[in-house]
Amino acid sequence: MSPAELSEWMTTSQVARALEVSNSRVIHLADAGRLPYERTQHGRLFDPEGVKRYAETRRINDAGKLPR
Asked: Structure pTM?
């Protein structure tokens, strides 16, 4: 993957803000294979399309839950 392509990808903190979760939750999701990422010399970078797919899946799953 070229540096230009990776420049569009998201940091752990950006993903955490987008998904409204903690940085450690993002790392857990990545380690579990639920969020695609690449390791770089600057840390993990996440594919924005993968983050979007995960967010959509989460919204669909959350829609079926009863409010607390």
From this structure: 0.80
11-53: per-residue pLDDT in tens? 999 999 999 999 999 999 999 999 999 998 889 999 999 999 9
Q: In whole angstroms, give the CA distance from residue 36 to residue 1.
A: 14
Domains of the chain by start residue, with CATH: 3-63 (1.10.1660.10)
Decide: helix, strand or coil at residue 1: coil
Strand 37-40, strand 43-46: pairing: antiparallel
DSSP structure string for 4-46: HHHTTSB-HHHHHHHHTS-HHHHHHHHHTTSS-EEEETTEEEE
